[in-house]
Amino acid sequence: MGERDKPDVLIVGAGHNGLVAACYLARAGLKVQVLERNPYVGGAAVSRKLYGDFTYSNCSYVCSLLRPEIMRALELPRHGLQIIPYDGGCTMMRDGGHLALYDNHDALRREIARHSKRDAEAYDRYARDVIRQCKFIKPLLMREPPDPTSFKPRDIRELLYLGGHFQRLGEQRMYDTLRFWTMSAADFLDEYFESEIVKAHMAGSAIIGTALGPRSPGTAYVLLHHYMGDIDDTVGAWGFARGGMGAVTRALAASLQASGGTIRTSAVVERILVRNGRSVGVALADGEEIDAKLVLSNMDVKRTFLDTVDAKELPTDFLRQVRNFKIRGSSGKLNIALDGLPSFPAIPVGSPSTRGDMHVTDTIEMMERAYDDWKEGTWSRAPYIDMLIPSQIDPTMAPDGKHYMSVFVQYCPYQLASGPWDAAKRKAFGDTVIDTIGQHSPDFKSLILHAEVRTPFDIENEVGLTEGNIFQGELTFDQLLFNRPIPGYSQYRTPLKGLYLCGSSTHPGGGVMGAPGANAARAVLRDLGREAA
Amino acid sequence: MSAAIPRRAAFDCIVVGGGHNGLTCAAYLARAGRRVLVLEALERLGGAATTREFAPGFRVSAGAHLLHQMPARLIDELQLERHGLRWAAEAMPTAALSTEMAPLLMRGDTIEGPVSSADATAFREFKAQMGRFAAVLNPMLDSMPPRLGTDRWRDRLNLLGVGWRIRRLGRRDMRELLRIAGMNAYDLLTEHFSSALLQGTLGLDAVLGSNFGPRAPGTVMTLLYRMAAEHGAGARGLALPAGGLGAVSDALAAAAREAGAEIRLAAPVARVSVENDRISGVVLESGEMIRASSVISSADPKRSLLGLLGAEHLDTSFVRRVHHLRTRGLAAKLHLALDARPQFTNLPVAAHGARLLIAPSLDYIERAFNHSKYGEFSKAPALEVTLPTASDLSLASAGQHVLSAIVHYAPYELRGGWPQHSQAFTTAIIDTLEQYAPGLHSLVRASEVLAPPDIEREFRINGGHWHHADLALDQFFAVRPVPGATQHRTPMEGFFLCGAGCHPGGGVMGIAGRNAARQVIAAGAHA
């Protein structure tokens, strides 16, 4: 590479946030190069062909949190991204019953009323309150959290904005918000619903990706985090990316290339080079060094600072806090190729509810016990699963007549109490999940053509996420807003000049939202004295 | 408004309930010149700060068993020592018991026993930092939490004051406080220490009296809360009043009486009476009506608002909030009458006067907690044990001893019911103790376990929670007990709350009672 081609900005990792940041910076006229260690782009938003003509969204699997302003600004639809909303969802019960969720409000009320008339009444109140909280938080997603210890005008202005934003809720809703942020999902749901199945279905969002149980305080916020999506302005709606989650990062890559940015795959960054307290480029595993004015790391905060930056370049106090940052592996994933559509006897034939997210955990207690197993260092014996068959809606995912099933599994530890993960344990984990599904679908097992089983350990090794944590760090109070990832470094900047973080370890966290990438790009441009394009 | 109250009312204020907060409130009101009547349902005063005989010749602090959170200032202001309060033990150390090694003995910021020097240093630093936080947070316990979103300058100043005090900690401490305030004790303690026994011991302090295990976010807040309250208690630290906790109530009653308050026992209140949308007094279960312009209830919020006042006087949304208040206790109390002094392995007799903790690791507490989530009692419970007779000979005959323990966890609603399983629970606790004090079994002459339903019955606390309402972030400070009933006021004019359900909670602190009195006086000044 000639001196003239020397990039202004190197981005380590072509995950969706790295690409989002790259796009914004390229659009602002910077010469941007993204380095990806895998031979393909996408990080944890990928579509992979691992068996026949099946496409697996083998990490993240549904889409809704991607900020609409990012979609618009980066023209992702024009670059091929199409989100297909799905309606419905269901939880199958151990006694053969079920709860279906429908988009149609009347149908939904009738369905909930089947389990509890009171809950059907309460549902509207629940939806209204949740949407209200989402509306409160949404404007905060695309802003830099202020440093409450700082006297800089910008921080004070942002703090006042936060205060004002909160104040505008009015007294009663301020209390509601305060409580909402600090409650457990179980307590929160108890304030609305009486039926176990309704509560269990709703509580699922509160534990996905999280090393907490539904009774742990703070999980009401996680629930909200998963409601923050909007597709076509429907709050809380979820959809499939046509062609799998890789379509999101493919569109981002196309958008980046259209703005003149470049991507190098199979480029393993081994070190971020630091000279005089300033990052000056990176060294690749094959010895090549690439200079750049700025480096953005899409890796999580631990991987960035504990594995890629020389410890002697960093303040000890900072390193200690990085070590203390909680990134916990708590989720596994199965990707299954099916010879046909499995039957689910609990669900009436023709119900749209099997076209959405399906679950088999029918009480909060089951979820809580699943968490207890994780605490003891084993995968849940009766795991919470979030399974979808996207090929019903997006035929590109599987050959005709065949289907792709994505199964997200909570909880699965990164480190087993019984020793390191190996092939036999991985298989046993997979079998636990398959048996769990099999209890609700008699023909399921016989339809399996191929199953990819991914433990947190596998996800870490392949995707690079520490402990395989899908959010690049727990979404607990001590790691949100100005505490994320490290108090004092919540504004995408790091102790090293010229080095920025742009991954989900930063505010507002994970979920294929793209907000960290966009916010990081904005911080970079401000430091360069430029405004975002 | 005050014209609605007939002149013939003999009292300005009626305090419902003669627990420590009710008596504290009454004492302060009487000292401020109010004509005060305290109505206690039972034949005895003190609520859950009481001493009673639980086996022939054996007396024990039946509810709270240590005094460590009552502000030294309150004790001085009410001159409780002049009113008879004496100390059997002060500044008690804490001993963390282990079946595998010698106990850890903690006194202030020093630690003796089998810990690494790194842990001992970390302990000193941890105590120092938490001490700085406690000093900053203590005034928050003492003062009225602000109402949010009001235009009142007092509330705004109060909020700013909180922010300012935190800011004055300096950047490093402030950042750490903001980080850990919502964190879980499990993570915080594993960040600091490597000894499982030390982690467990400090973890137990974080969950004592709460409804959580150490992995629950918010448990650092309960730890900070405890330390902030203890900061106010000053050098006396963990203390045993001579004659048990009942002595505190007796001294409070004496202080209230001296200031002019009248106290009636066996006078259960059926309801408060409302005239012209305002409190006009109370009606006793006997049917007797007693008039007063203010009624201050030290009963728990549910009993106060839904029982004494009644949902018919309240908005639906407010009533819903009160219903949702989590008030079920998760702690039980064990009392053992012992024929001789028990022998704890490796614990010198000189340390028997310490607070003894059985929580050998954080995982031990978390596992104990797991059971409670499913309506079971802990098979291997975590315990805070005191041997009051090691310091106070008045509680049993010579040579005999009393063991008192707070037991975590015991759910209010036990699967299969408490009556059927109470004996099994007692056995599980004594078996646990036996591992640390071999031979204990054979010394037990009598035992008593108070599970939350027993606490509910004996102390008339809905749900049997010693804080009346669970201490959790969503039921704390500006939202305690529920929005609309903060700052000791209720939606009904003239009706106030002064119990543990209010900020800052229970734990024989007395602050709720003291703050409520201030609020009643302030309200009267405006009327």
Report on this model:
The complex is a heterodimer of chains A (533) and B (527). Chain A is an alpha/beta fold and 533 residues long. Helix content of chain A is 35%, strand content 17%. Chain A has a five-stranded parallel beta sheet, with helices on one face. An eight-stranded mixed beta sheet of chain B has the order 8-7-6-16-17-18-15-19, sandwiched between helices. Chain B starts with 12 loop residues before the first strand and ends with a helix. Mean pLDDT of chain B is 95; it is low at 1-6. Chains A and B meet through helix 6 and helix 13 of A and helix 5 and helix 12 of B.
Strand order of the largest sheet of chain A: 11-2-1-15-21
Mean pLDDT of chain B: 95
Count of DSSP strands of chain B: 20
Distance between the termini of chain B: 7 Å
* Overall mean pLDDT of chain A: 94
The computed structural class of chain A is alpha/beta
Write a concise keyword list for the protein shown above.
heterodimer, A: 533 residues, five-stranded parallel β-sheet, four-stranded antiparallel β-sheet, 21 strands, globular, B: 527 residues, alpha/beta, eight-stranded mixed β-sheet
